[in-house]
């Protein structure tokens, strides 16, 4: 039996979901978005894309690691999905320095590398960002980086389409009556009621 799955929203979460479930046998996937394909109307189109792997909740660190693993394999028109440029947490007070060192220890406890830097080392690592006279110290996270959302969304949408997912453009979902939701598609003017 074929299962039919509708993913609403073609931001990074929607296309990742579509790409994953479209690889399962016996599943038909349709992706609906209110905007034209590739327009990134939601948060995905606004994010600069910093991915800091460490989170005090280990499950969220694992999720970030899995996301980076996925993004690292993606490219679109010669551009990478993820650049491992590293990250810095910068302290400008002694209390701030204690906090970044506390986070560094928690990061190491989850198996990720960090390096505690003094102000001179921090300024050398990121001269455009670190004002050495104001800096007390910093922690470097070598595995952090920048996710390029446009590249990732385009590559995952192509991957989903290659395994049979159908992208539908300009399709807005909204509640029409209590207990019911409808899809109103400007392309072809289809209206599909669902319970
Ligand atoms: C200014 C800013 C900076 C950020 N910076 C970072 C960062 O540096 N690092 C980081 O990890 N995260 C960052 N985030 C958060 C990150 O961007 C979001 O968590 C992520 O993009 C959410 O993706 P999404 O696919 O869930 O939602 P969205 O990207 O918002 O996608 C939702 C999609 O659903 C569609 N849609 C909505 N309503 C309907 C409807 N009724 N019918 C049909 N389609 C609909 C929209 O058109 C949109 O395409 C930032 C967010 C913002 C706003």
Textual characterization of the structure:
The protein has 195 residues and is of the alpha+beta class. It has a domain at 1-47 and 150-195: FAD/NAD(P)-binding domain (3-Layer(bba) Sandwich). The chain is built from five helices and 14 strands. It has a three-stranded parallel sheet, with helices on one face. Residues 184-195 have low confidence and may be disordered.
The portion of residues assigned to helices is 25-40%
**Which CATH architecture of the domain at 1-47 and 150-195?**
3-Layer(bba) Sandwich
Shape: elongated
User: What name goes with the CATH superfamily of the domain at 1-47 and 150-195?
Assistant: FAD/NAD(P)-binding domain
Q: What is the CATH topology of the domain at 1-47 and 150-195?
A: FAD/NAD(P)-binding domain
H and E order: EHEEHEEEEHEHEEHEEEE
Strand content: 25-35%
User: Largest beta sheet: what is the strand line-up?
Assistant: 1-2-11
Count of helical regions: 5
* Main beta sheet strand tally, sense and closure: 3 strands, parallel
Q: Low-confidence segments, ≥5 residues, pLDDT <50?
A: 184-195
Descriptive labels:
195 residues, binds flavin-adenine dinucleotide, single chain, three-stranded parallel beta sheet, three-stranded antiparallel beta sheet, 29% strand
């Amino acid at each position: 039996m074929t299962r039919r799955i509708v993913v609403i929203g073609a931001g990074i979460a929607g296309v990742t979901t579509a790409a994953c479930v479209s690889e399962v046998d016996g599943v038909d996937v349709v992706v609906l978005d209110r905007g034209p394909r590739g327009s990134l109307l939601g948060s995905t189109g606004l994010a600069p894309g910093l991915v800091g792997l460490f989170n005090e909740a280990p499950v969220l660190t694992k999720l970030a690691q899995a996301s980076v693993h996925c993004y690292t394999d993606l490219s679109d028109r010669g551009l990478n999905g993820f650049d491992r440029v590293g990250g810095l947490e910068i302290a400008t007070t002694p209390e701030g320095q204690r906090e970044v060192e506390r986070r560094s220890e928690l990061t190491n406890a989850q198996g990720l590398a960090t390096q505690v830097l003094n102000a001179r080392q921090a300024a050398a690592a990121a001269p455009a960002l670190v004002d050495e006279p104001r800096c007390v110290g910093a922690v470097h996270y070598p595995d952090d980086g920048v996710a390029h959302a446009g590249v990732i969304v385009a590559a995952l949408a192509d991957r989903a389409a290659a395994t049979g997912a159908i992208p539908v453009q300009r399709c807005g979902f909204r509640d029409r009556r209590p207990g019911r939701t409808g899809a109103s598609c400007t392309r072809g003017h289809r209206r599909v009621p669902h319970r």
